[in-house]
């Protein structure tokens, strides 16, 4: 049975009743901490000092953990550095770096002096922060989405029966947590991918890999979108559907792949494999060999959604123009073009409708060269 967030929080709250001695590491103990796979996020609860418990997102794609600035100040956390640089898809941003003193999990596992980057960005409803990759690569660990557990083995996992070792590696630095990279093949393109439970989608390729793989092509059906993350900027992207993803013993048929525009800032590796794939696997780290072991967990695939109109917009004040039209989309079939001005519909209503389900319709006016016409798009699954 998958653990829900309410029972997970109750387990962490029970820490308040434990004596301090019970919270110290015990020889040979396996630390079992509840996690919840809820939609497009992995959740975990923890206390900071004597406060909480609080909800955190498990984000193996981040080298450091993150905490809400307002909460950090309320808890009077010590500031390690006032300005720490964080590089993400949106560029480089500056954040304060806090010392959380003691972070304690429901199992009794305590991590002293845990660093957190502060952020003013909301990470999602109920989340006060996220735990980065170091939580999973410091000890041999399991992410078991079926039992709803993160299991930590401070003295090493005793065996790896039933698991397959991926061609993988830990990459990091002395000051930041290691992240996990693994080899995978996408429609014949062999690349190195970061494994990121913080990315809701299935697969992403950076701009160089998008071009090298041949997937960034005007002839291939795509849905336009953009990528955001830490940092103030964004990256133009396309969503495409490919035949197969091969990750060790696992083959995923017809995944949706997000392609960053060629020329976008490069990242470590060729791309990212996200929770849409990882949530169907049992994940185990082996610190001694610095590798990842996996096994299918039997959970069904999650339905991947994308905007089915094929439209992306620019908005400046009350002016809405088309910024991109996806090949093969309903918008392309309707003859809409980049630069057309959209009218006859409020911005909020337009965004809600173009992101609706297959079969729904959205009506508006499109103006080009002083000529205005009525358009009604019917959304279809065209990828």
From TrEMBL:
GO terms for biological process: proteolysis. Gene3D superfamilies: 2.30.42.10, Acid Proteases. SUPFAM superfamilies: Acid proteases (SSF50630), PDZ domain-like (SSF50156). Keywords: Hydrolase, Protease. The keyword Hydrolase applies. PROSITE patterns: ASP_PROTEASE, TAT. The keyword Phosphoprotein does not apply. Pfam families: Asp_protease_2 (PF13650). This is Aspartyl protease family protein. GO terms for molecular function: peptidase activity.
């Amino acid at each position: 049975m998958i653990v829900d967030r309410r029972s997970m929080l109750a387990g962490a709250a029970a820490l308040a009743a434990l004596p301090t001695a019970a919270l110290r590491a015990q020889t040979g103990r396996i630390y079992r901490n509840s996690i919840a796979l809820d939609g497009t996020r992995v959740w975990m609860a923890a206390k900071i000092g004597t406060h909480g418990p609080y909800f955190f997102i498990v984000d193996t794609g981040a080298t450091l953990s993150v905490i809400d600035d307002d909460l950090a100040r309320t808890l009077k956390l010590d500031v390690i550095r006032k300005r720490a640089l964080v590089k993400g898809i949106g560029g480089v941003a500056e954040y304060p770096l806090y010392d959380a003193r003691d972070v304690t999990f429901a199992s009794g596992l305590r991590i002293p002096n845990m660093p957190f980057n502060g952020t003013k960005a909301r990470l999602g409803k109920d989340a006060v922060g996220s735990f980065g990759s170091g939580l999973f690569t410091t000890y041999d660990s399991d992410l078991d989405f079926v039992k709803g557990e993160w299991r930590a083995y401070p003295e090493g996992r005793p065996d790896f029966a039933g698991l397959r070792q991926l061609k993988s590696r830990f990459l990091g630095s002395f000051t930041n947590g290691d992240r996990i990279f693994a080899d995978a093949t996408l429609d014949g393109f062999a690349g190195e991918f970061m494994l990121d439970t913080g990315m809701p989608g299935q697969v992403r390729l950076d701009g160089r890999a998008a071009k090298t793989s041949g997937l960034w092509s005007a002839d291939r059906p795509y849905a336009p979108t953009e990528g955001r993350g830490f940092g103030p900027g964004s990256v133009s992207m396309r969503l495409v559907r490919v035949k197969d993803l091969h990750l060790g013993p696992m083959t995923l048929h017809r995944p949706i792949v997000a392609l960053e525009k060629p020329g976008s800032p490069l990242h470590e590796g060729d791309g990212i494999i996200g929770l849409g794939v990882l949530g169907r696997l049992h994940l185990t780290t082996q610190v001694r060999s610095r590798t990842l072991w996996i096994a299918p967990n039997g959970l069904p695939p999650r339905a991947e959604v994308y905007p089915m109109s094929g439209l992306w917009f620019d908005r400046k004040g009350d002016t809405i123009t088309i910024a991109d039209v996806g090949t093969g989309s309903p918008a392309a079939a309707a003859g809409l073009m980049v630069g057309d001005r959209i009218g006859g519909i409020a911005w909020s209503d337009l965004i809600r409708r173009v992101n609706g389900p297959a079969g729904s319709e959205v009506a508006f006016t499109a103006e080009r060269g002083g000529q205005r016409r009525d358009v009604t798009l019917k959304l279809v699954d065209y990828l």
